[in-house]
Design brief:
Blueprint (H helix, E strand, L loop, with lengths): L2 E4 L2 E2 L9 E2 L1 E5 L2 E6 L9 E4 L4 E4 L1 E6 L12 H10 L2 E6 L10 H14 L3 E4 L15 H6 L4 E2 L9 H11 L5 E4 L4 H4 L4 E2 L2 H6 L3 E2 L1 H18 L3 E3 L5 H12 L4 E5 L1 H5 L21 H13 L4 E2 L8 H4 L16 H12 L4 H7 L2 H6 L15 E11 L18 E11 L2 E5 L2
Parallel strand pairs: 1-6, 2-7, 8-9, 9-10, 11-12, 12-15, 13-14, 15-16, 16-17
Antiparallel strand pairs: 1-4, 2-3, 4-5, 7-18, 18-19, 19-20
Helix pairs in contact: 4-7, 7-8, 8-10
The structure holds (4S)-2,6-dioxohexahydropyrimidine-4-carboxylic acid (DOR).
(4S)-2,6-dioxohexahydropyrimidine-4-carboxylic acid binds next to loops.
Length: 427
């Protein structure tokens, strides 16, 4: 079906001339034309985007889809529907599934299921080590041939520094990008939340900022030694972001991401022991939240990623120390970015949208994340005037646990279009 998106305000990273009030004509899944006052031909569906923004389809670098193995928490069908509702048209899933995504056949399984039951594009990160066991490297060449471009043992750090060094060295040859889950387990083990005043007050065991920062420092140094690219997942502390900033100033090809919960919330949210606030890395302190915001603003942090980590209700509804880590993040991310980063902290929308499109696309080695004639018609229409309250029972994700329940946000995805198909529309 042909589509005409009229009167929208394009925020289009990577294409400075194709920004502002422009119409888009979509034909056969591609953008046929971008211009002023385009006319709808016969049988063309028109979407009126007056007073709304049009973004390239959002890209999420860090999603736990749980399939195979934990479909009771999420599956590819439900996860991609949730992503479409959140404005995403490409998501990258993490390999801590059961079995882990550590070989070609599991990669192909995910791809086939995504083709059959997914409503948007799914790509996958594969493990760094077989079985995520931290002992033996995966078959990188085979995974590269199968289309994989990033590797991570996300959920756990590769503790053996020698193995991590080799992983970085070999990965650079293909090239594959290593995504580091930076957490020294010896310091974080048994912890429930950020270590600080609040954890002491609540009597919960803390995870110190140093657990992340030591790991970030190690992995930056190893990437330098291996002359490799590195991406740092879910950074949460002032110290980590400063380490990344310094590494980038020295010219190292290292990137980083932060999540909406880390640029919005502090560990004060944990008062009341609500397990929806339990996440790894944990919610930190005010200065860390501000460091995340400043990192996005000055470009040190080039990507916003959800770390969407759905769990079943019965798992989260336990006492704090027994509940699993993870927040359902896909359906609130872009509204949080708009409300917190743009409206509150005045970060330009172009910077925010680049961090949700072209920048993560580059890390995934995908040529997407921008709107251009003859390019794929994957785009997100966002109504900045709509105020709404987060209602987890309305989530399309099976994971309903969010610390943002009941919070009023400004701005909401009104339509998501993937390859010319309307995959979500707000009603
Ligand atoms: O909160 C988290 N949940 N952090 C992680 O690193 C893993 C994730 C999960 O898989 O549940």
């Amino acid at each position: 079906m042909n589509l005409l998106i009229k009167n929208g305000d394009l925020v289009n990273p990577g294409k400075p001339k194709l920004n502002g009030k422009l119409d888009l004509l979509v034909k056969q899944g591609k953008i046929a034309k971008i211009g002023e006052n385009l006319k709808a031909g016969k049988g063309c569906q028109v979407i009126d985007a007056t007073r709304q923004y049009v973004f390239p389809g959002l890209v999420d670098l860090h999603v736990h889809l749980r399939e195979p193995g934990h479909e009771y928490k999420e599956d590819i069908a439900s996860g991609t529907k949730a992503a479409a509702r959140g404005g995403f048209t490409t998501i990258n899933c993490m390999p801590n599934t059961e079995p882990p995504i550590d070989n070609r056949s599991v990669v192909e399984f995910v791809r086939e299921v995504a083709k059959a039951s997914g409503v948007i594009r799914v790509v996958t990160t594969a493990c760094i080590t077989k079985g995520r066991a931290g002992k033996e490297l995966v078959e990188m060449a085979d995974l590269y041939e199968a289309g994989v471009r990033t590797l991570s043992d996300d959920g756990d750090m590769v503790e053996d520094a020698h193995l991590m060094r080799r992983a970085l060295e070999y990965a650079g040859m293909f090239p594959l990008t290593i995504i580091s889950h930076a957490e020294v387990a010896g310091l974080s083990r048994g912890g429930d939340m950020n270590e600080g005043f609040v954890s002491t007050k609540l009597g919960l065991k803390g995870i110190p900022a140093a657990a992340e920062e030591i790991a970030v420092a190690r992995d930056i140094r190893l990437a330098e030694l291996a002359k490799a690219r590195l991406h740092l997942a879910h950074l949460s502390t002032t110290g980590s972001i400063e380490l990344l900033r310094t590494a980038q100033k020295r010219g190292l090809p290292i990137t980083g991401e932060v999540t909406p919960h880390h640029f919005t919330l502090t560990d004060e949210e944990t008062v009341g022991y609500d397990t929806s606030t339990k996440v790894n890395p944990p919610l930190r302190e005010r200065q860390d939240v501000l460091a995340c915001v400043r990192g996005i603003e000055d470009g040190t942090i080039s990507c916003i990623a959800t770390d969407h980590a759905p769990h079943a209700g019965f798992e989260k509804e336990r006492e704090y120390s027994r509940a699993p880590f993870g927040i359902s993040g896909l359906e609130t991310a872009v509204s949080l970015a708009f409300t917190e980063l743009h409206l509150k902290h005045k970060i330009p929308l172009a910077t925010i949208i680049a961090a949700l499109t072209i920048n993560p696309a580059r890390i995934l080695a995908l040529d997407i994340g921008t709107l251009a004639e003859n390019g794929p018609a994957s785009l997100t229409i966002f109504d900045p005037n709509l105020k709404w309250r987060v209602e987890p029972s309305a989530f399309l994700s099976k994971g309903k646990s969010t610390p943002f329940a009941g919070r009023e946000l400004t701005g909401r995805v009104s339509s998501t279009i993937y390859n010319g198909r309307l995959v979500y529309q707000f009603d």
